[in-house]
Amino acid sequence: MHPTHKGLWAVHSAVFLFGLTALFSRLIALPALEITLLRSLFAVAALWAVIRWQGDPVKLQTRGDYATVLLLGVLLAGHWVTYFHAMQVSSIAVGVIALYTFPVMTVFLEPLFHGDRPHWVDVISGIGVVFGIYLLVPEFRLDNATTQGVLWGMLSALLFALRNIVQGRYFRRYPAKQALMYQILITILVLLPFGSAVIPQVSTAQWSQLLLLGVIFTALPHTLFAFSLRNFKAKTASLVACLQVVYASLFAALLLGEWPTATTILGGLIVVSAAMFETYMAGRRV
Fold first, then answer.
1. Taking the CA of residue 120 as centre, how many other CA atoms within 13 Å lie in the half-sphere pointing to its CB?
2. pLDDT digits (tens, 9 = 90+) for 142-201
3. From CA 165, how far away is CA 167, in angstroms rounded?
4. pTM for the whole thing?
5. Which residue ranges run through the membrane (predicted)?
6. Whole-number pLDDT of residue 115
């Protein structure tokens, strides 16, 4: 098989699995924090095994890198917990759509690190995202479940954007699997004091679900996504990643009966279109 075809197969498989990951926020009857902690235990073990099997280095190069990965791990932990919580308090479609405000957030956050200014087209994308989010929110009241889901999802997007910026600027010399393994390890250490009490109460069925989530729906798709980047540009992979919204919403509707409303679909189309546009423009500016 041609390397490009292998890369496309890998990235589409990864995004498909990422989309199905959202379903576990409903399938596993545990709070978001505990799900994140326990999935991380399996994911870090799987990633460590892959790294050792491939003969890649495990240790980081400098002490400063350990400080950087500590920050990255805290951001990843917050991103995962708030993302799952967003879907638990509202719906999977709302949570995933709110998460995909992160490409536009990235455009406005990067100047804080690089010193440049957003382009005027980025401002238009930002306005589009605001309008898309406006359509998602039925009423601006904090006791409304959808509003809560949007706010938690946007907080998750903010943490994800910050994590990606910091990793891209200060940690890019490390392979994706190695970087992720350390970040998940930090996630475990951060969440363990808050979520360890639930471990004795987890049922056998839930452990099976968490094993699937950690290995098949966390470690595997991240490994596939990293593999795809060897064969074509990150821009292409990021554009394909926007299909995660479609997969998550579609399977939530078909398997869980969570059918999105017309305004949710319209708002989602606007947000995802802005995300795809910003991803495309970022690739052209490189």
1. 0
2. 889 999 999 999 999 999 999 988 888 888 888 888 999 999 999 999 999 999 899 999
3. 5
4. 0.90
5. 7-29, 35-54, 66-86, 92-113, 120-137, 149-166, 178-199, 211-229, 236-256, 262-283
6. 66
> What are the DSSP calls for 47-108, one per residue?
HHHHHHHHT---S-SSHHHHHHHHHHHHHHHHHHHHHHHHHHHS-HHHHHHHHTTHHHHHHH
Report d(CA 277, CA 21) in Å as an integer: 25
Q: How many residues does the chain have?
A: 286
Domain limits, the chain: 3-285
Which parts of the chain sit beneath pLDDT 70? 1-4, 114-116, 118, 229-236, 279, 282-286
| Calpha distance 265→255 (Å, rounded) | 18
Provide the pLDDT for residue 283: 55
Dist CA 142 CA 272 (whole Å): 24
Backbone angles phi, psi at 166, to 5 degrees: -65, -45
**Residue 142 phi, psi dihedral angles, 5° rounding:** -70, -15
Angstrom CA distances, 48 to 37, 62, 78, 139, 186, stand at: 17, 20, 22, 45, 14
| pLDDT value of position 203 | 96
Spell 122-150 as b/e; 16+ CB within 10 A means b: beebbebbeebbebbbeeeeeeeebbbbb
CB 166 within 8 A of CB 71: yes
- Tell whether the torsion through CA atoms of 68, 70, 71 and 77 is positive or negative: positive
